[in-house]
Amino acid sequence: MKSSYLTEITLPINYHIKDFLAFHQRDEMGVSEIVQQNQIKKGIIWHDNPALLTITIENNKAQIQLDIDGDEPFYSHAALSVLASHMLGLKQSVEIFESIYQNHPVIGELITRQTGLRIYQSATPFEALSWAIIGQQISLSAAISIRRRFIQAIGIQHSSGLLCHPTYKQVIQCSQHDLRQCGFSVGKANALLHVSQLIDSGMLALTISEEENEVRLLTEKLLAIKGIGMWTVNYALLRGFNYLNGSLHGDVAVRRNLQYLLRQEDKVNAEQAEKWLAEFSPWKALVGAHLWRQQSSSGY
């Protein structure tokens, strides 16, 4: 049995449609996401049921369709709107940021040129954290390959043929060996398994409010897990929680583009970038995104 649901969201006039689609187009083989023209189709798990999420953007509107496999699946119109708004980055108050910094002597011109830039989100915080763990200290192409094999190994398939990104419930059924077969290192396999077990036990919740104290507590819990470092936490917060105050000073592209922006002959090191970005709190990650966007169409 399959159930279909529809909703629609109005987008800001300056919404970066190409950037949103590019973020979901990293894996050209498209085992769990397909991007065609102005549309993305993505396999997700919706309340334990395989589902196909389709977002089509036309005339400054996002049309969202959710096709759920299974008998009498749970559905909430509000929950679907929240998911779509989250993925589209619409929960980010970028207009306030732009009004504050559009005349800044260093980044004002960049922000004006890239007005409307948002940080597009993974479907869930767990997906963002899984990607961050996979992507630690390896190339983008290697991370994409491991992610693909991970999704294929779990093998939750929607009736459309697309595979669904696993949740912690599927991961805890895996062994270290299973993940190693997908290309995970021992450390990464153990980290993802530990995260999933903590979520399952109720000892870890991948949720935060806008309170910095909650961000700090979640950060501490994640850093306590062997195999998870600050880069991983910052990336997960960036792509899974709409958190715009993480510092991306460790990112090579951010530092390279900052050097270009500052017209500086010497390379900008991580310490210098961290100090420079600190001046833009609570928007450090958004400034980092603007720096990255200078030379990339897909974000990090």
Structure summarized in a few sentences:
It catalyses: Hydrolysis of alkylated DNA, releasing 3-methyladenine, 3-methylguanine, 7-methylguanine and 7-methyladenine. The protein is α+β, with helices and mostly antiparallel strands.
Description:
Helix content is 45%, strand content 13%. With 300 residues, the protein is α+β, with helices and mostly antiparallel strands. It has a five-stranded antiparallel sheet, covered by helices on one side. Strand 4 and strand 5 (61-69) form a beta hairpin. It starts with a strand and ends in a 7-residue tail after the last helix. The model has no long low-confidence stretch (mean pLDDT 93). It comes from Xenorhabdus littoralis. This is DNA-3-methyladenine glycosylase II. It catalyses: Hydrolysis of alkylated DNA, releasing 3-methyladenine, 3-methylguanine, 7-methylguanine and 7-methyladenine.
Helices and strands in order, then pairings?
Elements: E1 2-10, H1 17-23, E2 33-36, E3 39-46, E4 49-58, E5 61-69, H2 77-87, H3 94-101, H4 108-113, H5 125-135, H6 140-154, H7 168-171, H8 176-181, H9 186-201, H10 212-223, H11 230-240, H12 252-261, H13 270-278, H14 284-293
Antiparallel strand pairs: 1-5, 2-3, 3-4, 4-5
